[in-house]
Amino acid sequence: MACVFCQIVAGERPANIVYEDERAVAFRDINPQAPTHILIIPREHIDGPADAGADNEMVIGHLVAVAARVAADEGISAGGYRLVLNQGRNGGQSVFHVHLHLLGGRRMGWPPG
Ligand code: 5GP
Ligand code: ZN
């Protein structure tokens, strides 16, 4: 299996998992860009946001719901946080298994780089 995030879902690659359920897994980013940097992914392989068609709307929505729950667990709900979905090369996507970034614990800049 070539996809590193599918390997994490399968338990074949170590990850610091903070939450999981029947549809999604959340784990700490290996190269954190903020005090809290967690990736929320569907168990099902979907290449990226552009490939999440009508069939997957519920899957993508679930990632946002999981992010809110994990943010509360991390104690960053009150201060606020940023959710990011990168699509393709110009979007900065480097892993082609759709993932929602949860970033918090510091003030984010805008516009993003
Ligand atoms: P992208 O640039 O595709 O939006 O984000 C991919 C993210 O996955 C990056 O922030 C990168 O640090 C993280 N990442 C890549 N490989 C691994 C890995 O094997 N384990 C973990 N925990 N994070 C990874
Ligand atoms: Zn995958």
Descriptive account of the structure:
It is a single chain. This protein is of the alpha+beta class and 113 residues long. It has one domain: HIT family, subunit A. The chain has three helices and five strands; from the N terminus they run H-E-E-E-H-E-H-E. The chain has helices at 4-9, 57-74, 88-91; strands at residues 17-20, 24-28, 36-42, 81-84, 100-104. A five-stranded antiparallel sheet has the order 1-2-3-5-4, with helices on one face. Strand 1 (17-20) and strand 2 form a beta hairpin. The longest helix is centred in the middle third of the chain and has 18 residues, at 57-74. The chain starts with a helix and ends in a 9-residue tail after the last strand. 24% of the residues are buried.
- Unreliable stretches: none
What CATH first level would be assigned? Alpha Beta
Bin the helical content.
10-25%
Largest beta sheet, briefly?
Answer: 5 strands, antiparallel
Strand order within the widest sheet? 1-2-3-5-4
Shape: globular
Bound molecules: guanosine-5'-monophosphate, zinc ion
Helix/strand order: HEEEHEHE
The class by helix and strand makeup works out as alpha+beta
Number of domains: 1
CATH fold type: HIT family, subunit A
- Hey, roughly how much beta strand do the residues contain? 15-25%
N-to-C span: 32 Å
* CATH architectural category: 2-Layer Sandwich
From the alpha carbons, calculate the radius of gyration and give it in angstroms.
13 Å
The CATH superfamily turns out to be HIT-like
How many E-type strands?
A: 5
Mean pLDDT over the full residue set: 97
Separate helix tally: 3
